[in-house]
Amino acid sequence: MLHTHLLDLLLDPPTPVSIVYVRDPSPPGVTLKVIDDTFKLVRREWQESETCSNLEGSFVKPRFDPEAITITKIVAFGLGTLGKNNLGKLPVRSYAQHAATLTIAAVLKERNISRGVDVQCFSQDPWYNETDIEFLGGLGITVLKDPEGFLEIDEQTLVFSVGPDVPVRQIVADVQWPAAMVWNSPLSEVQINGGMYWARSPMEADPDSERVGSMLRNYDGAQLDDQADYLGELTVYARRPRS
After folding, report:
1. Cα–Cα separations (whole angstroms), residue 68 to 104, 177, 179
2. How far is it, in rounded angstroms, from Cα 18 to Cα 207?
3. Is the pLDDT of residue 202 over 70?
4. 101 near 123, Cβ under 8 Å?
5. What pTM, to 2 d.p., does this model score?
6. 49: Cβ–Cβ under 8 A, 6 or more apart, which residues?
7. Please, are residues 58 and 50 in contact by the beta-carbon 8 Å criterion?
8. Cα–Cα distance measured from residue 203 to residue 208, given in angstroms and rounded to the nearest whole number
9. Which of 144, 168, 203, 222 has the fewest Cβ atoms surrounding its Cβ within 10 A?
10. Closest by alpha carbon to 159, among 202, 124, 205, 207?
11. Strand 219-223 vs strand 234-239: parallel, antiparallel, or unpaired?
């Protein structure tokens, strides 16, 4: 029943939310070997970074108490292709964001937040090509097409979203509240009144809304310190135990 309700919302949303993917002509692709070599390099740098350490340190008690929260699945949105961007360069941030997905999965298992089982990893992004799909599959990340990523979300899911091209936060708020989220930090009223809304392009596709704010009041969040700008301005949320 939940999946039927979700499809109805995605195909005929109750509010005027447009989901539009925009593609520029793609530059020539890269080989699996180039992607693999680049990922190993970026992942090593990521694992040695302060941002990675800060992210790992986000999954601690009391917000992430294994006795109160269970996460067995990660569904990611908007992490980007591992091929060349429109400037003909490999997108380092996309590589780091996929490495971060694996970091989160490992931490959830190590700290028994997944009840000791391997965490399933899924990712949805319209920019993925066949090479991306093959490489990510080798890492244990299953690529999903729209709207399959949203169909995977349940009460034991962590949603990981970085500047997506779709209103991820609004869809999640309307359809299925997950156990946790790592996604773009909401703007304060001061930032909105000061014009920051229009200066942050991810917010144009995934804007703040009253519905999102209402959902977030049921979560405890802490902003991630990312001085190296691997991920941008993100907040790590955990759902409060329901009485």
Report:
1. 18, 16, 10
2. 12
3. no
4. yes
5. 0.84
6. 228, 230
7. no
8. 7
9. 222
10. 124
11. antiparallel
Mean predicted confidence (pLDDT) in 144-154: 96
Q: Are strands 120-124 and 73-77 parallel, antiparallel or unpaired?
A: parallel
16: number of Cβ within 10 Å: 5
**Separation CA 198–CA 210 (nearest Å):** 18
Give residues with Cβ within 8 angstroms of 156, minimum separation 6: 70, 71, 72, 73, 178, 179
pLDDT at 188: 55
Let me know: does 51 contact 228? Beta carbons within 8 Å.
yes
Dump pLDDT digits (tens) for 102-144. 999 999 999 999 999 999 999 999 999 999 999 999 999 999 9
Residue 172 near residue 181, CB atoms below 8 Å: yes
Mean pLDDT of 45-57: 98
Query: Quick one: tokens of 170?
Result: 């609004």
Cβ contacts of 238 within 8 Å, gap of 6 or more: 63, 64, 69, 179, 180, 219, 220, 221
Query: How long is the chain?
Result: 243
Helix 32-47 crosses helix 92-110 at what angle (to 10 degrees)?
60
Structure tokens at 232: 């941008």
pLDDT of 25 strictly over 60: no
Q: Per the structure block, which two tokens stand in for 182? A: 């790592």
Residue type, 173: A
First and final CA of the chain: distance in angstroms?
25
Task: Yes or no: say if 97 and 55 are a contact pair by the CB < 8 Å rule.
Answer: no
214 burial type by CB count under 10 A (0-12 exposed, 13-18 middle, 19+ buried): exposed
